[in-house]
Pentapeptide repeat-containing protein (Streptomyces bangladeshensis), 226 residues
Amino acid sequence: MARRETGTGGAGVKGARRPEVRLPPLEPWPEGELEPDGDYDGLEFRERDLTGQDGMGARFMDCALTGCAVDETALGRARVLDSVLTGLRGVGTRLAEATLRDVELVDARLGGTQLHGAVLERVVIRGGKIDYLNLREARLKDVVFESCVLVEPDFAGARLERVEFLDCALKGADFGGATLKDVDLRGAAPLEITRGLDRLSGAVISTGQLLDLAPVLAASMGIRVL
């Protein structure tokens, strides 16, 4: 089970509550394939090739997935609870409308991951690189992006509450139509936002970041700087 902690916050922004996942003794997952609506409890998936498998609607509880390939793995509407995902790699992993609660995602190398409409609560994404992460219309609460690289993440229409970016590269982010509350962007370097600057009223940034964003802010407001 996960012990919930309160983040440090600061500067009038509430910090995210982090998960602290303590896994029980795990049994190795037997040979086979994921099943739609499967129930996986207390299992270790180590160095498994899950490419193209169908785990739609499955439930993973107190599980560890380590070094697994998840190219085009179908996990839409899956529930991942009190679990640690380490070293996942793959392109086009499908997690639309999934639920991740009390989860640690560590050192992932992913591209085009589909998490639109998903719910992330008490999730830490630490290390690794994720390209073209699709979080459109998702709900993120108590989520920390730490020491990772996000290339063109899509938060359009998403709701973010108590979300922190710590020592994290945020390149080409889209916040169009998003709703932000207690979102701490001060640890994002670089902080590159291509869309949705007008949606940042619930975020906190540093003075240096404000100066870096000034040309884009001016352009979005129709201000010419000569």
Remarks:
- The helical segments are 207-220.
